[in-house]
Amino acid sequence: MKMTRRHWVQLMGAGAIAPLGVGAARALAQDHSKHAMPAEPPARPSKEGHDGRYTPVRTLNGWTLPYRMVDGVKEYHLVAEEVVHEFAPGCVAKCWGYNGTTPGPTIEAVEGDRLRIYVTNRLPEHTNIHWHGILLPSGMDGVGGVTQRNIQPGETYAYEFTLKQSGTHKYHPHADEMVQMAMGMMGMLIIHPKDGEPERIDRDYAVLLHNWALHPGTYRPDPSVMQDFDLWTFNSKVFPAIEPMVAATGDRVRVRVANLSMWNHPIHMHGVQFLVTGSDGGRWPKSLWRPEVTEIVGVGQTRDMEFVAVPGDWAFHCHMSHHTMNAMGHEIPNTMGVDQKGVEEEIRKILPGYMAMGKDGMAEHQDHTDSGHMRGPENTLPMMMGKGPFGNIEMGGMFTLIKVRDGLPADDYRDPGWFNHPPGTQPKRVSSDPNFGNPVRRGLPADASPKFETKPVDHSKMKHS
Predict the structure, then answer these.
(1) Alpha-carbon distance 127 to 157, whole Å?
(2) Side-chain half-sphere of 226: how many Cα atoms within 13 Å?
């Protein structure tokens, strides 16, 4: 029997969401800095695919596809194939992607370039590629059955078109789309303006949003799930395995966010008011730029966010709170305020080691998973992970940090470690007495209010139609 997340949670109760992936938790809880970046992170962005006319994009945890010039045409080669992908240490899956990764490599080019993109199909079924938002001849649009025959397993097709625009775009299949996108087939296509940027860009990041139904204990994403996902990812990684975005104080930073998931995502940036400067439609006129701290990136959309970096460690995340968690249960019995001691003992008779949680909230979750009190399903990450200089970060999913430091060398993208806060710029403890001070209230706290209890209802005496 396949154990879905819903089965797992319903069988175990709310306490079961605590121990998911204890082995993975041990691996990830010791030193966040060693897991937020690759073991040997590149000091500088890749120059591959860069023709010197723009600031190269850095795709977090990703890479840029090299090209070769052939008679004035930039030639790229994408290979659609099955890949083994690690979402974070302790969780891998057989996914589908391009050239060995999901997302596929970022393609960078310049407005006016002529591109020839070979697509080889090494999947067990046909595919194609749609160039999302690109202005091109209809026959190159990549919609199976409409504009082309699909690319059969083993075949290679060549797409060729001239770029008439600039901006942040994507590529993905328009064949068996539900399956192929759920398995990770997607990538970004960045087109730089031919006349340069109206405002200099010092650091240019690319983030592709996605979601995955990788049920506890399994190794292949389930394409039949529409909304109840297990993993929410930036570039197919979950926190704390997502690289930080690094900048020097005063740098002008652009974060290009694209959404090929099944949800809209309110992307929130701490520390600055960023300007929304572009979308799938390209860079907007300055008169349309608007300041935000949260921007909803709808399904199928892109947004460009620009800001001048200020020193510190700043969170960058989706503001849907379940999207900053890893594997967890949804729509489970509510245990808030419920004394589960007696229930816990009874459940332990059939599930030894069961731990009831949730009476006072879930803040203890990471402590329990980090310490290995209970083991969860294999290949399943804990709901909350990450260690910071002041304790547990208690995040997962779509979360990373923007790390800004004074004097950082130009185009150095290495993790600078944790921020040293200047004296007097952090909160401090002034009392350990919960009755401290005379705060203004408009009601009594719950522990001073009349008690109320729920009572069982006798349905046998009720009339039911």
Answers:
(1) 10
(2) 0
